[in-house]
Amino acid sequence: MKKLGLPEHIRACLFDLDGVITKTAVVHAAAWKEMFDEFLRRRDGADFTPFTPDDYDRYVDGLPRADGVRSFLASRGIELPEGKDDDPGSADGPDTVHGLGNRKNTLVLEKIRTEGVEAYEGTLRYVRAARALGLRTAVVSSSVNCRDILRSVHAEDLFEVRIDGVVAAERRLPGKPRPDTFLAAAHDLDVPPGDCAVYEDALAGMDAGRSGHFGYVVGLDRVGQSDALREHGADIVVQDLAELEADA
């Protein structure tokens, strides 16, 4: 019998954070939209074209913050100076790649502080079941707020390894869709990529799972994009990991 819906050879589970463990993907999407719409409105006036959910899925979701800014701006034919890593994230901060990215992060933190963070209970149960079966666990996220978010939902101790935006910067690891952060998690767990399962809700995460030659890629369809998840490399797509718990 498969363990938790996984092939028998899988020994480790590598989980994305936003949209997989916590319901923060919608918070991030709202912050991206608020930041980009404010920038575009200031740049183009009343005739600006708003940032859309499709823009989020295609150009931003799952990418490190600065890469998301560059990707979306390129889709609109806009070029901005890179600026500095610590460019102010205030509404009147500089229009640079890092300035816009820091503004987005300021908005995310404000929303998390005022609205709180909620976990997907099906995922937390699944992670606990995986650990009970002896599977290794890691969290892999582009977020620099990963540890604080996990602590807020009392889930930090469920993961042996954390590769997040802070660790990626320290190790100079490129973000998704490159597989390097997931590969780093597999390395730190001392499990070959082919014996690891990746859990992602973003298309960039699917691409990372496929290009990293991981043993199994589970797509979480939170927004009705199951076909796209499969096209980008998912071996299986579910709406919630609770659907796989029955296999334990």
TrEMBL record:
Keywords on record: Carbohydrate metabolism, Hydrolase, Magnesium, Metal-binding
Cofactors (names): Mg(2+)
InterPro entries reported for this sequence: Beta-PGM-like (IPR051600), HAD-like_sf (IPR036412), HAD-SF_hydro_IA (IPR006439), HAD_sf (IPR023214), PGP-like_dom2 (IPR023198)
Keyword ATP-binding: no
Database matches in Gene3D superfamilies: HAD superfamily/HAD-like, Putative phosphatase, domain 2
Molecular function per GO: hydrolase activity
Superkingdom in the source lineage: Bacteria
UniProt region (Disordered), positions on chain: 79-101
Cited SUPFAM superfamilies: HAD-like
Family per record: Belongs to the HAD-like hydrolase superfamily. CbbY/CbbZ/Gph/YieH family.
Protein name (database record): Beta-phosphoglucomutase family hydrolase
Lineage: Bacteria, Bacillati, Actinomycetota, Actinomycetes, Kitasatosporales
